[in-house]
């Protein structure tokens, strides 16, 4: 038996399909990055991770791995989170440098990554149990080796190079920084906010603060004008944008932020990549791509790494080797 659809229903079905086609087409056009196109001749924003840093293979790395013990053979004589490293990154073309922040026993804002001193330095114990004067006497290049401890090519080169945040800002007065609070403690956020509150408004506008949710929230409570990011901030922004981004609207939770994202997240974002970047930029939010290696974030540090970027990417790039990457992403004139 053959079923026939009444003419009035055929007409309704046709109209419904036409409406769906128009709506779908409208959504595509409104969110098509292809039609938006990339920013022509625009170089990506370069975020120098800890200045110019020694690199290492992330394969097999765990939360307890001493990464100074597994570095690649050094190509540069620089140590992360030091003034020589930061200067070199900016001279190579960095737009902003990320530095790690910890509060010392005497309330100073030390620039150092690890929770303890044993991996990279000739010191021992938690950073927060030492005064800044004690930290400054250490050799921050002491523990680096590329051959399982046979040689330590950077040993002796890092004595006295562990700076404070105010020293970094004073030495590089015209530069932009991202400050990463390493302990998720509101007291650390308050200590950083106390320093940031002394900066002129124009300098404060160049600062980004990141870290654990509670530490960053402590900074934002006192200085809501500071660009900030944390796991909670990123989650809120992306969930809200997933719900409303199809309209072209950027939710308030995404305004004045920094979004560090693995490149493969893009497939879930309305308007990815170019339209998404343009929308976020209009909301004063910076999108920075990181490489994803297992459970870890990694920098774009070699020419081969750049193949993971979307074509003509004009957002941000997270890198440990600005000296390598800047020449590769700078448009020729």
Helix-strand category? alpha/beta
The oligomerization state is single chain
**CATH secondary-structure class of the domain at 40-61 and 77-114 and 163-329:** Alpha Beta
- Relative helix content: 25-40%
Distance between the termini: 72 Å
Low-confidence stretches: 16-29
Average of pLDDT: 90
Rg, please? 24 Å
Helices, by number, come to 11
What order do the SSEs take from the amino end to the carboxyl end, as H and E? HHEHEEHHEHHEHEHEHEEEH
CATH architecture of the domain at 40-61 and 77-114 and 163-329: Alpha-Beta Barrel
Query: In total, how many beta strands?
Result: 10
At the fourth level of CATH, the homologous superfamily of the domain at 40-61 and 77-114 and 163-329 is Phosphatidylinositol (PI) phosphodiesterase
Please report which band the strand proportion falls in: under 5%, 5-15%, 15-25%, 25-35%, 35-45% or over 45%. Answer: 5-15%
Report the biggest beta sheet as strand number plus sense, adding barrel if it closes: 10 strands, mixed
């Amino acid at each position: 038996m053959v079923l026939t659809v009444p003419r009035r229903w055929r007409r309704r079905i046709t109209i419904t399909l036409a409406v769906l086609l128009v709506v779908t087409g409208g959504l595509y056009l409104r969110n098509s990055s292809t039609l938006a196109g990339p920013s022509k001749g625009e170089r990506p924003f370069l975020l120098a991770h800890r200045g110019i840093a020694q690199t290492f293979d992330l394969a097999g790395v765990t939360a307890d791995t001493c990464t100074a013990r597994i570095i690649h053979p050094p190509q540069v004589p620089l140590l992360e989170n030091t003034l020589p490293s930061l200067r070199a990154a900016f001279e190579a073309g960095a737009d902003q440098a990320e530095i790690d922040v910890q509060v010392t026993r005497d309330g100073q804002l030390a620039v150092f990554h690890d929770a303890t001193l044993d991996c990279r330095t000739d010191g021992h114990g938690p950073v927060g149990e030492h005064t800044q004067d004690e930290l400054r006497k250490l050799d921050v290049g002491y523990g680096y080796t590329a051959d399982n401890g046979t040689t330590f090519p950077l040993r002796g080169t890092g004595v006295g190079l562990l700076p404070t945040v105010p020293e970094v800002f004073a030495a590089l007065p015209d530069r932009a920084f991202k400050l990463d609070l390493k302990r998720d403690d509101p007291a650390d956020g308050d200590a950083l906010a106390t320093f940031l509150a002394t900066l002129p408004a124009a300098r404060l506008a160049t600062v980004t603060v990141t870290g654990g949710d509670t530490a960053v929230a402590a900074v934002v409570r006192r200085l809501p004008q500071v660009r900030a990011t944390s796991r909670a901030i990123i989650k809120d922004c992306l969930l809200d944008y997933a719900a409303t981004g199809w309209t072209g609207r950027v939710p308030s939770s995404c305004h004045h932020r920094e979004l560090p994202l693995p490149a493969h997240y893009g497939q879930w974002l309305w308007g990815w990549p170019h339209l998404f970047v343009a929308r976020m930029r209009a909301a004063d939010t910076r999108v920075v791509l990181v490489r994803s290696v297992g459970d870890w974030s990694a920098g774009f540090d070699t020419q081969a790494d750049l193949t993971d970027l979307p074509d003509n990417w004009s957002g941000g790039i997270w890198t440990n080797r600005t000296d390598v990457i800047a020449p590769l992403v700078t448009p020729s004139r």
